[in-house]
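Give me the 3D structure for procollagen-proline 4-dioxygenase.
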Amino acid sequence: MRTDKELRVGIKDWWTKSKYAYLNQPAIESMDTPKRQTTTYIPNFYFGNGISVWDWNTIAFQPMLGALRILWISSSSGDSLKANDISSIVHKTVGRSDGDDRRDQWVEVISWEPRASIYHNFLSKEECEHLISLSKPHMQKSAVVDSKTGKGIDSRVRTSSGIFLARGRDKIIRNIEKRIADFTFIPVEHGEGLQVLRYEVGQKYDPHFDYFSDEFNTKNGGQRFATVLMYLSDVEEGGETVFPSAKGNHSSVPWWNELSECGKGGLSVKPKMGDALLFWSMKPDATLDPSSLHGACPVIKGDKWSCAKWMRVNEYKV
Ligand SMILES: O=C(O)CCC(=O)C(=O)O
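Predicted structure for procollagen-proline 4-dioxygenase (318 residues):
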């Protein structure tokens, strides 16, 4: 087990080297390489197998630097896009050959502060329906963590209902958990059980952090450092996941005009059945990332079902 200091030194060293490697990366031929070349590289994520060797360097940077597909973007200006410029959002369809019934999938980087991306059509309709039907009979009023005692308490800041589904509970859940591990490069054993959430009209979760500020909740598995939030339903109006402290021009997202007033209070993601939002609560230097503040806007019309997977820095024992 490495000490905290060793981890930080290792990560910083790795970051310096990999930034250099990244900037000097030769062009990788894409399927439709445009004729005009520019100096702009946009990383896309790699859809690969899970990892067997676990290391902090891997946690923090594999999703960025394991970027096995570099999109070679055509641009007339040739200007480099800034890291936190959300106008750099790109879509790229990536084919899968594992025979499942999900539609086109692609990963869209939506923010660098916090680091966040959407994996479109991550879950199939059948998987969403399975999670809802398993959970529906057992939903309970959601709680929040009391930072003094570490215990779950009822609160007006979180008015949804929810239920935890044990890790590895059935084959469908095991498949989803394996897919999350592949997407995030975080082993299945570092994940808490899935938490299925339901928000009816007017229900919400005010902005909060997923990381803990008490010592009780970090005893098993350490700090939460990444979250995958999956949307199990569309929502007619409202219900966005909003990042009020995200850096960048929030109104440049293509879906800006479809957002509720609450959704316009930050960088927002509109729930769409099957999509998965990944964001990181810790920065590459292993410190907590306050820009990961996020909340669920009140549902205005419809019913919102979502499902959260929180991941810890160490193995989370169940
Ligand atoms: O459902 C959402 O959009 C957000 C949920 C959330 O922030 C949480 O459960 O921590």
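Residues 38 and 76 are 8 Å apart (CA to CA). Let me know if you want a second pass.
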